Structures are given as C-alpha cells and as structure tokens.
C-alpha cells in the first residue's frame, strides 16, 4: 500500500500511474452509475478522493458502505485541476476490508470535544485529533532530537519509587497488600514490612531525584517518562497521569537552566511548524485563531524575566481583578500566572526566586534566606508549563532544610551522597509534556491532548 502522505509529497512520481491505498471512509455519495468516497489513511492530514463506477463487480456493495468502513482501493491517480483537492483516484477495484455498522458515532458533522472524549477510542479518526496526536508525536521526537543533538544522555528513571520528590504528598500508592486487612504498626500507621518491596512505595511524581544522580556522572542528562499525581484538582490543565521531560545539568546555575529551557521551547516550536504545516494551519483556523502569530512571535523574541517579589508587586496592584487576592508568600494561582504572561508580558515569562515555603526541599537557598533559586516558565493560554530550579548542593544546608520540613532523611541517603562525593552546582527543570502540546496546538483542555486521559473520577478505556 502507498500512503496518502507519499502521494501528496511525491505526486509527480505517481501521477497517471496505478496505485493502491488503504484507509477509512470519511464520506461516501453516489449517483446512479458512479460515486465518490473520501478516504483518510491517517498518514496525512489531507484526505484522498476516490471515484468509483458501476462497471465494478461489487458496485452494489460499495454503495452500501458506511462511514468508518476500511477499504483498499486500486486505481489510477489523476490530476483534478478544477477541484478543491489536487488529485483523485479513479478506482479499478475496491476491496472491502471491514464494513462499518450503521451506528458509527463519527458522522460528517462537528462533534463537541466533550462528546468525543466519551469515545476516546474513535476520536483519533477525526481531523482535530489526527492533528493533535500527530503533533504530540512530533513534539516528543523534537524534544529527543533537541537533547540528543546537545549530547544529553537519556535516562530512564523508575516509575515505582519510595520517595516523594515534590513533597506534596500527592502520590498513588503501590501495594500488593489486601487493603481490607492492612497490618498496622503500634502507632497506627500502616506496616509495609510484609509488602512486596518491604516498604511504602508509590508511583513517581517526578524523576528528578534519580535524574540528579546521573547528572553527577554524565553532566547533562534528561528524562522523558510518565509521572503520576493524585492531585484532587479538576481543572483543564491537571491530569493524574502525565508525561514530563526533566533535563538536569551539572556545573550550571539557574541562569543556564533558563537559557536551556528557552532554547528548548523555541526549538520545539520551530520543528513542529516545519514538520506539521497542515496541522498547524488547521489549529490556527479552527482551534485558536492567534496561534501561528503568537508562536512565531515566541521564536523571534526573548522570554520575559521577573522575580516572584516583583511579580507580587504587579499583581497586588491588580488584586481587584482576581478571585484569589495575592500577597507576598502566597502561591500563584492560574489566574495570576495567566495575567502576568497574557496581560503584562504578552509572551512567555520566567518567574524566579520564590519564597522557600512554597517550593520543594531541594531548591538552593538564596542569600536572603527567604527565597530559593526557583524558576517557573509561564505561557499565555496556560500558565505554568515548566517548573525548575538550581539545586541545593551544600550537604549541611540540605540536611537542615530536610529536617525543618520533617522529611525522613534515611529515605534520601542516595541523594545526600551526591553532596558528599564531588558535589557540583547543578540545575534542572520539568516540562509538562501535555501542557506543551496544549501550548503548541491551542487546545484548551488537557483531556484533549492525551490519548486516554486519567483525571479525577475518570479512568475510562
Ligand atoms: O513544577 P513541577 O511540580 O516540578 C517538578 O516536578 C520538578 N521535579 C521538575 C524538575 O525540576 N525536574 O512539575 C513540572 C511541570 C509543571 O510545570 C507542569 O507543566 C507539569 O509538570 N505538571 C503537570 N501537568 C499535568 N498535570 C499535572 N497534574 C501536572 N503537575 C505538574
Ligand atoms: Mg510547579
């Protein structure tokens, strides 16, 4: 079979020749003696028109085909200068690979994203989701390409862990114990000593801690894998299972970290614009009208920079616009993040040096002893897309911060070792992959950029 992509890309090679394609029927109409089928094979955003005639043996079966059916067409590719599409196939033969029953849920009309979520197994056959998931695939590739070209080592960090990297307690527990008969310690806590791993374990919320150990061996590394958070927030940008890209760089500080993040984002945008022009045009036309202009602007300008303290000053002056009023020390909510990036900077912006109280234990303390060397990257339409920091590389400071927060130091022995054996300045960040896909496609709900989303109360398929 030749792919429809190949026909579009190298059309001269196939023009007026015999070709064979397979795909799924998007629409069909017939007159008495001939008819048209619009076929999509998933390899290319544009479909292919097929013309068939009553001279074919199975003409009577073909006219009965339903939308969604799988067919194979043999015929001649011919130019159609008068038509919307540049060419079509004049079919000699059509094999019916699999008829579709008449109740196919995707008919030739616009379905709401909400409805399509309820048929997540079929939505990849629609234009929007063909575009979303091809672009998602391309972004993943672009990210690997970006890091590999810079000699970063790709590290596979574990999915099952015994630590809570972000210290937010939002973990999914992993256990083989019978939940109805969990053994208890004398103090009432659950006793995991008889469990599979002999200790309490959970699905990872971030690969960072393990990633750091490899950065202290390879200098520059990145992870790219699934992460899990039992955050009870039912929003358009939180998923319980999402993918994260976490580079970690040794002999580097917060500044180097932001330079890396900015060049990565620009690289991804450039790559996708170049390799998915049809899809991007589609998003720009049907999903988010300002998309292309905005992304072009991002590639051609510098990201903004503001400290948390400066950001709070700006936001406080506009507190009347927010549901949740800000003051120094509070965590930024989506509405504040979006205000900063959409109204104040009108482009991606790094917010740096957050109060230590609202950030994780591993971040490097600043001289003021109040803030840490953190950076979040905020983008229009979404808010936080990246969270990162320079790491505390001083053994004593790290231990005392962990004690302050009541962390069980024994669980982090490996992590502390890094500060004993050749500690270096180092930094890293996490890019939320789904948020990145939202940013590049203009899709506004995280459920529509994950093939099979897992969110509070939803684990279908
Ligand atoms: O800001 P976060 O929590 O940072 C970390 O996990 C660090 N360990 C990263 C590092 O420094 N190596 O998460 C990083 C990013 C966020 O900016 C966001 O884009 C995404 O992960 N993210 C989520 N995406 C979807 N659903 C959720 N529930 C998410 N939580 C975080
Ligand atoms: Mg964060």
TrEMBL record:
GO CC annotation terms, alphabetical: cytoplasm
GO molecular function: asparagine-tRNA ligase activity; ATP binding; catalytic activity, acting on a protein; nucleic acid binding; transferase activity
Domain of life: Bacteria
Residues in Aminoacyl-transfer RNA synthetases class-II family profile domain copies: 133-451
One GO term (biological process): asparaginyl-tRNA aminoacylation
Record keywords: Aminoacyl-tRNA synthetase, ATP-binding, Cytoplasm, Ligase, Nucleotide-binding, Protein biosynthesis
InterPro entries listed in its UniProt record: Aa-tRNA-synt_II (IPR004364), aa-tRNA-synth_II (IPR006195), aa-tRNA-synth_II/BPL/LPL (IPR045864), Asn-tRNA-ligase (IPR004522), Asp/Asn-tRNA-synth_IIb (IPR002312), NA-bd_OB-fold (IPR012340), NA-bd_OB_tRNA (IPR004365)
SUPFAM superfamilies: Class II aaRS and biotin synthetases, Nucleic acid-binding proteins
Coiled-coil regions listed: none
Quaternary state and interactors: Homodimer.
Similarity field: Belongs to the class-II aminoacyl-tRNA synthetase family.
HAMAP family: Asn_tRNA_synth (MF_00534)
Record-given protein name: Asparagine--tRNA ligase
Organism (species): Anaerosacchariphilus polymeriproducens
Gene: asnS
């Amino acid at each position: 079979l030749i792919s429809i992509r190949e026909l579009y890309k190298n059309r001269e090679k196939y023009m007026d020749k015999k070709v064979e394609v397979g795909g799924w029927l998007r629409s069909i109409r017939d007159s008495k003696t001939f008819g048209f089928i619009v076929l999509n094979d998933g390899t290319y955003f544009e479909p292919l028109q097929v013309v068939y005639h009553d001279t074919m043996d199975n003409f009577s079966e073909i006219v009965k085909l339903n939308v969604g059916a799988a067919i194979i067409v043999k015929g001649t590719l011919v130019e159609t200068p008068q038509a919307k599409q540049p060419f079509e196939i004049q079919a000699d033969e059509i094999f019916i690979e699999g008829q579709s029953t008449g109740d196919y849920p995707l008919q030739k009309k616009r379905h709401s994203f909400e409805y399509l979520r309820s048929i997540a197994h079929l939505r990849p056959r629609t234009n929007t989701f063909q575009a979303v998931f091809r672009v998602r695939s391309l972004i993943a590739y672009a990210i690997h390409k970006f890091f590999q070209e810079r000699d970063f080592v790709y590290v596979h960090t574990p999915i099952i862990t015994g630590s809570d990297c972000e210290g937010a307690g939002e973990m999914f527990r992993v256990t083989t114990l019978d939940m109805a008969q969990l053994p208890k310690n004398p103090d009432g806590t659950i006793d995991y000593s008889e469990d599979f791993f002999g200790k309490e374990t959970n699905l990872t919320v971030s690969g960072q801690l393990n990633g750091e150990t490899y950065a202290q061996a390879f200098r520059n590394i990145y992870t790219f894998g699934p992460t899990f958070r039992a955050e009870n927030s039912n929003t358009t940008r939180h998923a319980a299972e999402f993918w994260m890209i976490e580079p970690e760089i040794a002999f580097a500080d917060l500044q180097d970290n932001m330079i890396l993040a900015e060049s990565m984002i620009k690289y991804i945008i450039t790559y996708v614009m170049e390799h998915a022009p049809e899809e991007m045009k589609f998003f720009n036309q049907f999903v988010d009208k300002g998309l292309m202009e905005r992304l072009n602007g991002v590639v051609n300008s510098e990201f903004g920079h503001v400290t948390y303290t400066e950001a709070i000053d700006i936001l406080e002056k506009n507190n009347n616009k927010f549901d949740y009023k800000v003051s120094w020390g509070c965590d930024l909510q989506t509405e504040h993040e979006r205000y900063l990036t959409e109204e104040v900077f009108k482009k991606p912006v790094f917010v740096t040096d957050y109060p230590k109280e609202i950030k994780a234990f591993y971040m490097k303390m600043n001289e003021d002893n109040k803030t840490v060397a953190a950076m979040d990257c905020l983008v229009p339409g979404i808010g936080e897309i990246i969270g990162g920091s320079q790491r505390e590389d001083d053994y004593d400071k790290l231990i005392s911060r962990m004690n302050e927060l009541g962390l069980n130091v024994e669980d982090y022995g490996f992590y502390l070792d890094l500060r004993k054996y050749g500690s270096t300045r180092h930094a890293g960040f996490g890019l939320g992959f789904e948020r990145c896909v939202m940013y590049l496609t203009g899709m506004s709900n995280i459920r529509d950029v994950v093939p099979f989303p897992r969110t509070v109360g939803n684990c279908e398929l």
